[in-house]
Amino acid sequence: SAVISQKPSRDICQRGTSLTIQCQVDSQVTMMFWYRQQPGQSLTLIATANQGSEATYESGFVIDKFPISRPNLTFSTLTVSNMSPEDSSIYLCSVAGVPEAFFGQGTRLTVV
Amino acid sequence: DAKTTQPPSMDCAEGRAANLPCNHSTISGNEYVYWYRQIHSQGPQYIIHGLKNNETNEMASLIITEDRKSSTLILPHATLRDTAVYYCIGHNAGNMLTFGGGTRLMVKP
Known about the structure:
Oligomer: heterodimer
Structural class of chain A: mainly beta
Mean pLDDT of chain A: 95
Number of strands of chain A: 11
Distance between the termini of chain B: 36 Å
Largest sheet of chain B: 5 strands, mixed
Order of helices and strands of chain A: EEEEEEEEEEE
Strand content of chain B: over 45%
Helix content of chain B: under 10%
Distance between the termini of chain A: 37 Å
Strand order of the largest sheet of chain B: 1-9-8-3-4
Number of helices of chain A: 0
Helix content of chain A: under 10%
Number of strands of chain B: 9
Shape of chain B: globular
Order of helices and strands of chain B: EEEEEEEEE
Mean pLDDT of chain B: 93
Shape of chain A: globular
């Protein structure tokens, strides 16, 4: 199993600013995933973060808007840049275990 | 991940069995059927998975049809704490998950 600590749990931010979300795992993992969950919607994959290489972004998500760092095998950050109210969502990190995946508790972001 | 289809919502009386259906007609031969749930404002939680055979654990039972085109998650004695969104996903372990719309289960007293 894996325990994931995600910070902050929630934040209210001004439009035009940036927020960095941290994800710490209690074991070494190869791949970490970042998801977005817009209000009332399902989870959508933003990107896959591998240690030692650039993140792989899904269609509709770009590095300039959602830069990701993966400095080691237990930690990753997602930055939401130049925020607008449309970025108000829950952001979750996840790791792929066998057989199941594990998720952080999410960061609830409100942009005003 | 295979495309899955689930009813958007269901109600269940507390103490009764909750049977949540899922269609996954395009699931490939080596993809497992996974079920996760998301209780309000929390990260998704793994429930159970299976390939061909029916599976049971302390949380639920999973019934997979012989042709693997559909499955049913059974919560044998639903409680109010089982109120959540339930996601059925065709998936191979170790990769990212593709979430569909899920079923919002409301357990009522």
